Amino acid sequence: MIKRYDSDKIKQLVFNIYQAYGFSETQSHKVAEMLIYTDLHGIESHGVQRLVMYDHFIQNGKIRVHSQPEIVKETDVSAVVDAKFGLGQLNGIYSMNLAIEKAKQHGIGIVTTRDSGHYGIAGYYADMAAQQGLIGMSSCNSRPAMLPTHATKAFVGTNPIAFAMPAKPHTFIFDAATTTVPQGKIEVYNKLEKDLPALWVAKNGNEPVYDHTQTEDFKALRDPDATVGLAPLGGVSENTGSHKGFGLGIIVEVFTSILSMGNISTEITPEDLSVGPCQSFTAIDPAIFGDKEQIINRFSRYLQDIRELPAIPGKTIYVHGDKEAAAYADRKKNGIEIDDRTLEEIESIASRLNIDYTNYVA
Q1: What whole-number distance in Å separates Cα of residue 112 and Cα of residue 125?
Q2: Rg (CA), the chain
Q3: Band of pLDDT at residue 272, cut at 50, 70 and 90
């Protein structure tokens, strides 16, 4: 069952949990802010649902609480950051702030980061740039999840791409895995014991998996040697465009692991403490192309023209960021959505850390 919870109270609980791990007050605030931002925008797969995974990584040492990111190569417009296995959200915020600083000084900033951790939604970091009046982009590689076109084993990560640009009445944000859905969405459906509604998972290259009771197939998604994986954007056939999602996943690999000389997807495993995922962060000042206000206004008019196109009866035309803005308004007023199993996971973590959670989840 899914219930609503006050976002400020859950944010405080997350803050308390990260302070109990040993993160500083500032770091704990940043992590809590980012995770609740995610749930407030209706992306439950990557919000507090991820706390249990991060808890596991903190306990086994894959996330190192006291690590600090280090710049290992830098120019006026670029940098390579060694994240030293710190928490992904903190590495992401650090790296995007670095890209933003370079963009403000030189018009563009591109930072690629290696040996990081799972950093949540890519869109958060792209939006950081947009909130500063810049165009933002971010991407991340991950352990193998995607079935390359015609392959029977996963090789490419879910490798999301995010883009954000200032617009009116709200920021345009595109954030999507290059697989049909991210791994976290499969986890949410499994927690809710719901069948998958479309071809999100396939085995043996092209056999769809829908039934939530096929537990062995879903467990095998974490096994790099299994013949089960996530479908690329476009499904599992060239006729439906699977090669497009596959190609986009490779492009993400270039901007994350290849340029940073970090780990490619096949080198990342959840238990190997010596490897971590890679990320990229780009900020661009529209002013290097012309009058910034005119550019943003023109883009805003373009988006509004799309919204006002004739629509299929009973349907609304949305552009990217519309649904997230509506979700934010709803969840800020009525609470974020958390399923019972995720709540149990959060309560278990809090109990182990001697945190009284009762007042936060009432």
Answers
A1: 13
A2: 20
A3: confident
Q: φ, ψ for residue 162 (rounded to 5)?
A: -130, 145
Q: Which long-range contacts (CB under 8 A, 24 or more apart) does 346-349 make?
A: 346/13, 346/17, 346/48, 346/51, 346/52, 349/17, 349/51, 349/52, 349/55
What does the block give as tokens for 336? 């974020």
Q: Is the dihedral of CA 165, 322, 251, 99 positive or negative?
A: positive
pLDDT at 99 over 80: yes
Beta strand pairing call for 70-74 and 228-230: unpaired
Q: For 125-144, what is each residue's pLDDT tens digit? A: 999 999 999 999 999 999 99
Between the two ends of the chain, the Cα-to-Cα distance in Å is 15
Q: pLDDT digits over 59-75, tens only?
A: 999 999 999 999 999 99
Which residues does 244 contact at the CB level (< 8 Å), separation at least 6? 232, 233, 234
Question: pLDDT band for position 214 (50/70/90)?
Answer: confident
CA 20 to chain centre: 24
Structural domains of the chain sorted by starting position, each given as residue range(s) with its CATH number in brackets:
1-60+328-362 (1.10.1530.10), 67-186+233-301 (3.30.1370.60)
Residue 231 · residue 179 · CB < 8 Å:
yes
